[in-house]
Amino acid sequence: MLKVKGISCYFGGVAALINVSLRVGDNELVGLMGPNGAGKTTLFNVISNFVSPAKGKVYLKGEEITHLPPYNIVKKGLARTFQDVRVFNHLTVLENVEIAVPKSRDISFWRGIFPTFNGELIKRFVKNAAIECLELVGLSNLRNKSSQSLTFGQQRLLGIARALALRPYILLLDEPSAGLNKNETNALLEVIRKIHKRNIAILIIEHNINMLMRLAQRIVVLDRGKKIVEGTPDEVREEEAVMKAYFGREKCLV
Amino acid sequence: MLSVSLALLMGLAGQVSLGHAAFFGIGAYASSILSTMYGLPVLLSIPLATTVGMGMGFLIGYPVLKLKSHYLSLATLGIGIAVQEFFKAAQPITGGETGLYNLPDIKIDNFEFSSPLAHYYVVWAFALITIFFCDRLSKSFFGKRLIAIHSDEQAAESVGINVFWAKVYVFTFSSALAAFAGSLFAHCSYGAIEPGEFGVGLSIKIVIMVVIGGMYSVYGATMGAIIVSLLPEIIRRLGGFTSMDLTYLTYIQDIVFAVILIIFIIFTPQGIIGKKANKNA
Fold first, then answer.
1. Does A45 touch chain B if contact means CB atoms closer than 8 Å?
2. CB contact under 8 A, B161 and A99
3. Which chain A residues in 132-191 lie under 8 Å from chain B, judged by CB atoms?
4. Domain count of chain B?
5. Contact (Cβ atoms closer than 8 angstroms) between residue B218 and residue B138
6. Could you read off the pLDDT of A79-117 as tens digits, one per residue?
7. End-to-end CA gap in chain B
8. Distances (CA, A) of A37 to A178, B164, B261
9. Would you say residue B231 lies in a domain?
10. Domains located in chain A, CATH noted
């Protein structure tokens, strides 16, 4: 499904990613772990081409997407969410999702001005598709609220619904549980499982190691821009290096 | 109408243009030149002028929209000044500083819209049509995509929106509308135009209209336009009571505008209509 090959990326003189390779198989759920600043989000940005890598290639379903503009990568079937949520203010919950439904792009500039019968059909189709995505994350009853009025946890879910509306083959989730309380995290876990059941591959950045252990089929650990460990959750748990990089650093921070 | 055209650009897509008067002027001059020098009927010169404005909008918008936020504003400001200077300098076709005069009125068969009242109705009719269609546009998925771009360009790209082209589209359309408004202005304003009318002052006035009325709504921009055009009149009346000198009054006008703008930006960045819409939500 997704293949990342030998990615290196520099910001100024600092190496954010060094020769990182990674694979996500069809319908696989892969966790991406590592301390702050390890380059996890940068890797996401490279995959969705918000950041161009200095070296390396990204393939989606065998097709190279390294240099495609972000909006085209989306059309190839790769969707992502953001750590800082980024819902569209001034649009309602439903509208946020609607504009992500690919069919809504059929409403071009001219169709926006002049009403057509077909336009009404598209509108109805898009609305139903959007509601379906909102139902999946459990927000459909809030659909007419302004997106700013949602709690942080709900905005996260909205971000996921928005990404789902794109009908992706693979979904990149950037720390979906950060800043959520325990109940919200459990609800999120359910949502992720549901998405996975729909045959959508998932690559997820997650700090919460326990959650990842329960969820992921495979875990990749980054540290200081390098991949240091890869394996099943149990294998990774045993890996001393992770413990050092992860918990050692965290203790130092406290 | 001009305000509505900018509201589309600035309000929905969040691109601040400080050179919108340029397109207004391009429309006015294009239509004037076509109708006086080439003797085209006004009914033909207006659409042609609109097309010219659209073309210019695309040609300018395409390179300029690669810039972001305040860089974009500066570039458009520069273009606004450049275009105005062109009007002044290109004497043979634009009449230089004195501008163009003896412009024909809108004519259908033998019926001429020549009285001020007729002008008034023509302009309002077109303004209402513009408002109606722009409002439709802003509520369509296209409009919502623009709003999304306004709030977060990267996130907008992440849902598959071609941000750059969407911006070029609105910029072009907005320029065409401004040119259309300009060409109407040329034929409905005492039959004369001069470069001073299409300066940065007007551009900023349009921005004020949009800010006061509310960025996210076409009706807001209309209201802003009405308020901004009425305000000088009100001040003049008030000034009449105090029997102040007219030059002083123009200064006071500018100060009042500035104060109002600052107040609005600080307290209701969404404008009058925007505020109401939010309460309903």
1. no
2. yes
3. 145-146, 149, 162-163, 165-166
4. 1
5. yes
6. 999 988 889 988 999 999 999 999 888 888 777 777 777
7. 28
8. 15, 31, 43
9. no
10. 2-253 (3.40.50.300)
Residue B214 located in a structural domain:
no
pLDDT of A194 higher than 90: yes
Query: Within a domain: residue B259?
Result: no
Q: Is B73 domain-assigned? A: yes
Contacts of B152 in chain A (CB under 8 A): 86, 88
DSSP H helices in chain A: 40-47, 70-75, 93-98, 109-113, 117-137, 152-164, 182-197, 209-215, 233-238, 240-243, 249-253
User: Residues 7 to 66 of B: which have CB under 8 A from any A CB?
Assistant: none
Distance between CA B138 and CA B145 in Å, rounded? 9
| C-alpha atoms less than 13 angstroms from C-alpha of A44 in its C-beta half-sphere | 23
**B85 vs B198: CA distance, rounded Å:** 10
B26 is in which domain, residue-wise? 2-198
- Taking CB atoms and an 8 Å cutoff, what residues of chain B touch A75? 160
Summarize pLDDT for B248-259 with one digit per residue, the tens: 767 777 777 778
Quick one: tokens of B211? 């800010």
Q: What are phi and psi of A172, to 5 degrees?
A: -105, 115
SS3 B269: coil
- Between B152, B159, B281, which is nearest A100 by CB? B159
